Amino acid sequence: MTIATATPATKPVRGRIRRVAWPLLLWLLVLPGAVWALLRLGGWEQGLMVQLFAFTPYVAAWSVVPVIAALATRRRLAGAVAAVTLAVFAMVTLPRALADGDRGPQGGVALHVMTSNLLFGNADAAEIVRLVRANAISVLALQEFSPRAQTRLAEAGLGDLLPYSSLGPEYGAGGSGLYSRFPITNPGVRHNNGGFKQAYGTIQPPGAGAVVVESAHPLAPYSVEVLDVWRNDLMEEPGVDPNGLPRILLGDFNSTLDHAPLRDLIDSGYRDAADADGAGLTGTWGPYDGDPLPPVTIDHVLVDERLGVGPVSVHDVPGSDHRAILAEVRVPAA
């Protein structure tokens, strides 16, 4: 009988392989997140990264894994890079889950607003009206607002609750609507370069100052070929004019707070209501019509910093791939 045994040279070879393989595997864990964090921090989003950036909160949660792996293997350099990566992700994402200490002026008149993307007008009109009624909504912004949706909302009784409107219905995804409990002055519908309409108007709640409200819907960055149009649509969204009326810009922005163009718009003088309320990581689009996607936050209520922000809630709407956002806005007394 012959028994094969490892030669003395075999064990050193295996040891060298392990010494090379484990650090390599660790760096393969560390580097993708580190590069992602660097791109996110610098606002360097090009090509496919524009779409991927919407999922940054999930990468942030995963970035804990390389830190644990580096600690377990006692690799100091990799551990330091992983720890810095985790710190960057925490800095840019965690504040969204924490309510801001400064939500703007909290006096004046409470204005309850709601935004909902209707998915080609197919969202459940009765549920939209129920949310309006149950939450005393005074301003409703709608995207993908079709003639059929307009008819169904009227049949469900929306006009009894919000009798004033500025409407731009359109078949497909391009339509926009704005309904109000209060009279709308200077109504209009703006056309984005990406093909979507944006209904707007000025309202004045009793006892409060006038506010300009607009239903926002820039183009989605659905392919590399349309990224310039997506950026341009966001750049052309109305910024805050400190010498003009306060603004509320609400709708489907097709962007998260991890996209630099949206952050630039907010920096013009807005607050993101969900971010201010600690609900900034609540998903509004993704799996809600059956698609195998993790939730991302692309719908927003942007509130002029001269106005205050109250509680925010997010609600499912049957028939839509988006969830509705409801927010309380505090409008200073006139």
Description:
It comes from Actinoplanes digitatis. InterPro entries: Endo/exonu/phosph_ase_sf (IPR036691), Endo/exonuclease/phosphatase (IPR005135). GO terms for molecular function: endonuclease activity; exonuclease activity. It holds the Pfam family Exo_endo_phos. The chain has eleven helices and twelve strands. A hairpin with a 7-residue loop joins strand 6 and strand 7. The chain is of the alpha+beta class. It has helices spanning about 10-40, 50, 55-60, 65-75, 75-95, 125-135, 145-155, 160, 225-235, 260-265, 275, and strands at about 110-115, 140-145, 165-170, 175-180, 185-190, 195-205, 210-215, 245-250, 270, 300-305, 310-315, 325-330. The chain has two domains: about 10-95, no CATH class; about 105-330, Deoxyribonuclease I, Chain A, CATH 3.60.10.10. Helix 1 (about 10-40) runs antiparallel to helix 4. A six-stranded mixed β-sheet has the order 3-4-2-1-12-11. Helix content is about 35%, strand content about 20%.
